[in-house]
């Protein structure tokens, strides 16, 4: 079988490596330049590759094409592949065909990385043989090739779900839905939401689907869709007969038996993290992990880097790195958790953002806005009459200096950009690391 892999990053290399190991004929093509460390891995694995171009004739002669999630579905080469009717899959689809391990897959607009890491921590803490992959950790395909895990916990994006055919998790979780990546979904919120729901489309009645009963869009779509998996809800607003909910500052999970824990014992703070902890606990109970082990995991879990990460306190000013907040809803959670007046660093590549969702929170919590991006005009126009102080900057060094000059003792400087990072940075990690470096300088 002729396999072509598009994209030479973590997921692309992993897919090519697995295909090679399975005895397939493999060719990897990247329109950009491949990083030196991945190039070396490709050479060591004797995988043929090209960079800086797509050799169309060769690509379109493939039996199966594996696409990295970063390649836009509107790209010219993707159009041609679809025209020819060649099977086009994501790495998660491809790798899942070669493992019998139970897959726990997590999607949603916000909280994916935290909840995926938390479920992985719960399983690892219970001494299960488990791998972490998808949008986080090491390549899922590479682990399928080299490891012998019984479980995989995968963070899954809508882009990866766009390119599945048979992907069937044992447990799927849809944490929440908010308007994100609309530029890739014809600026249609329902189209984006339905892409997320694909996580459950191949599940059968011996599988589980964990969903958020408080999420309006999820509830609307559940009325139209036929879900075969056993559905288990969680809610922070109402008591449930089955699932996870809040009751008198306690989180409760009711399945075959009951698990409960005081909110103050959780290592994660904020309302959104109570929802994430409920979802993760339900997954733990489905996998028959005992209550004591789940409780211990929820108490010992360390928050994810670049997600409400406390960097330092300098002269009474807290500096918080929330660079992973690349949409308005993620920033909503960050602002909601602020206990002190905030100097808010915001901006980057706008993905069709509607800032009305956070307008009232900004009026209540933010004393100054520092825009960070090549084009800050949309943010300035929207917020100029909502706060007295608004500044435009075009480098992290400048943004941190301006923020420090504005912040007084008892304030918080919050980097929570609402936007993608690609105008000034390689990715959100690069943006978060630069913020931390400038703060510590």
TrEMBL record:
One of its GO terms (biological process) is cell wall organization. The keyword Oxidoreductase does not apply. Residues 106-283 form the Mur ligase central domain. ATP binds at residues 108-114. Pathway: Cell wall biogenesis; peptidoglycan biosynthesis. Residues 306-418 form the Mur ligase C-terminal domain. GO terms for cellular component: cytoplasm. GO terms for molecular function: ATP binding; UDP-N-acetylmuramoylalanine-D-glutamate ligase activity. Its EC number is 6.3.2.9. This is UDP-N-acetylmuramoylalanine--D-glutamate ligase. It comes from Kaistella jeonii.
């Amino acid at each position: 079988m002729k396999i072509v892999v598009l994209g030479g990053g973590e997921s692309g290399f992993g897919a090519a490596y697995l295909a090679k190991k399975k005895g397939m004929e493999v060719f990897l093509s990247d329109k950009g330049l491949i990083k030196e460390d991945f190039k070396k891995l490709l050479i060591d694995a004797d995988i043929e590759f090209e960079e800086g171009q797509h050799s169309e004739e060769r690509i379109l002669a493939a039996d199966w094409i594996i696409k990295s999630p970063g390649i836009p579905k509107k790209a010219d080469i993707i159009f041609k592949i679809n025209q020819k009717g060649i099977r086009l899959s994501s790495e998660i689809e491809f790798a899942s065909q070669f493992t019998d391990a139970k897959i726990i897959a997590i999607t949603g607009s916000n909280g994916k990385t935290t909840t995926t890491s938390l479920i992985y921590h719960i399983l690892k803490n219970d001494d299960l043989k488990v791998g972490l992959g998808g949008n986080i950790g090491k390549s899922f395909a590479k682990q399928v090739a080299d490891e012998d895990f019984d479980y995989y916990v995968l963070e899954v994006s809508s882009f990866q779900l766009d390119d599945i055919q048979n992907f069937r998790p044992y447990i799927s979780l849809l944490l929440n839905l908010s308007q994100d990546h609309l530029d890739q979904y014809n600026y249609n919120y329902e189209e984006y939401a339905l892409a997320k729901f694909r996580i459950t489309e191949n599940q059968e009645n011996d599988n589980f689907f964990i969903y958020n009963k408080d999420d309006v869009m999820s509830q609307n779509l559940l009325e139209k869709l036929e879900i075969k998996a056993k559905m288990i809800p969680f809610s922070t607003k109402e008591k449930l007969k089955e699932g996870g909910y809040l009751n008198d500052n306690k989180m409760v999970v009711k399945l075959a038996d009951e698990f409960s824990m005081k909110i103050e014992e959780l290592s994660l703070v904020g309302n959104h993290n109570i929802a994430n902890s409920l979802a993760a606990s339900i997954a733990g109970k489905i996998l028959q992990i005992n209550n004591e082990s789940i409780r211990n995991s929820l108490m010992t879990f360390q928050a994810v880097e670049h997600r409400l990460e406390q960097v330092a306190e300098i002269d009474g000013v807290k500096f918080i790195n929330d660079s992973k907040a690349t949409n308005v809803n993620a920033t909503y959670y960050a602002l909601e958790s602020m206990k002190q007046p905030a100097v808010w660093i915001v901006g980057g590549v706008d993905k069709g953002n509607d800032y009305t969702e956070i307008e009232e929170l900004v009026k209540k919590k933010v004393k100054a806005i520092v825009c960070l991006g090549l084009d800050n005009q949309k943010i300035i126009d929207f917020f100029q009459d909502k706060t007295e102080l608004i500044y435009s900057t075009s480098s992290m060094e400048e943004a941190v200096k301006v923020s420090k000059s504005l912040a007084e003792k008892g304030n918080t400087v919050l980097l929570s950009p609402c936007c993608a990072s690609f105008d000034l940075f390689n990715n959100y990690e690069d943006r978060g690391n630069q913020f931390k470096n400038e703060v510590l300088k």
